[in-house]
Amino acid sequence: MTISGLYDLLEVQKIDLEIDRLLDRRQSLPELAEYRKTHELIQTLEARHGEAAEQLRDLERQVDKAEGELSILEAKLQEHETRLFAGGMSGKETEYMRLEVESLRGQREAMETRVLSLLDQLDPAREEVAALQKQLDEAREELSRLDGIIRQEWKQIDAELTRKEERKKEALVPVPAHLVGLYEELRRTKEGVAIAAFEHGVCGGCHMSLSPSEREEAFSEELPRCVHCRRILVA
Length: 235
Fold this sequence. Notes:
With about 240 residues, the chain is mainly alpha-helical. The chain is about 80% helix and about 5% strand. A three-stranded mixed sheet has the order 2-1-3, covered by helices on one side.
């Protein structure tokens, strides 16, 4: 194995580490965490808004029903009062009608109380729906803003990745295929670092010192390998 081939492979390793950093940066943008958090907030707000809106619709239905029943009671009461005050009935009929009027007045009073109670709940319910809608709109706007930032960052990173990949292809040209295969295998098992410089008696991959005998053993092979981590060494 020629020294130049190992230096070429060391350059490939340098480019690969730069690619790794770019990929890591792509997946760890601060805006990504904010995006996920905002997306979860939107889901929560949508659920709350849907529940509040359904409660409002139910309340409005109750108000409509109660007001309708009140109108029927008032019409019936007016009819009975008219008959009672008109006279022309027997004493027994008059007493019956009087009791009916009293009963209808009680029912009307109870229904008026119910209508007022429902109306008192209506405005707060509408305000809650409106407030949740406002929060939803703001959260969606923030999500859109973050999406724009992320897409722009990714565009720049992807462009840089493309340039790095082109450089890697060029750097790989003089490297023998069998060495590329070993390099890729070591990359998978050695945390992305397959080849390292050997300087001042220390492996640049595992950062362990090699004794004189270990150094002799490592560099006596056709392809120098660290005796500790088995990474390829370049002196």
